[in-house]
Amino acid sequence: MRRVVVVAAAATGVSLFAGAAVLLTGEDAPEAARTARTAPSPGDPLTPGEISRAGTIATGPSQEHMKAGRVELLYVERDDDKAEDDRRAEAYLYDYADDSLIVRTVDLGDNKIVRETRGKGVQPPPSRREETTAAELLLAHPKLGRGVRRAYANAAGRELRSAADLGLRGLIYSQPGGPCATHRCVRLFVRLPDGKHLDTSRIVIDLSAKKVHTLEW
């Protein structure tokens, strides 16, 4: 499991190629060799296909909430539980409605969820999709959004088309006593095409409430 500090397996395959080598001719032999080389071994990182498959399986029970924007898939990574022999993945999802982190363990051999945990007060770093969502909320703000668009136009010589045009980096923000004590909040750093960064030091995006806060100091 990802080790998060903020108040945030392997199917054994027996190779048949040695015994069947005499049957492989022409283009079959190189293809078989490539398959043998690329099959993941115990301890190997997840392949892109495994990550996609694990994400699809893990989000299955949350599809309706994801469509409504309540739940977001953050990450998928290999399950490092050495007590398990199967190749497994852990998917991290965040439920904005009750501000809890959901971790679902997927058995990649059986293609099913084998374990689920849910906890509060755990805030992994924001995902790329969350950074984009935070930027969209910022652009939708009546005053701050105009400022971002104006700064982008000055730097790029053209109008901003979407949040994808911006260089984004997000960090989790927590403030005792305020909404961000329990909500998932992000401080967004925005890089413009000329390499300069916007002054967003006082801006906090509340992903749970879908609001933009301006800090006072």
Automatic annotation (TrEMBL):
Keywords: Signal. InterPro entries: Cu_amine_oxidase_N-reg. One of its GO terms (biological process) is amine metabolic process. GO terms for molecular function: copper ion binding; primary methylamine oxidase activity; quinone binding. Residues 32-57 are annotated as: Disordered. The keyword Signal applies. The keyword tRNA-binding does not apply. Residues 1-20 form the signal peptide. This is Tat pathway signal sequence domain protein.
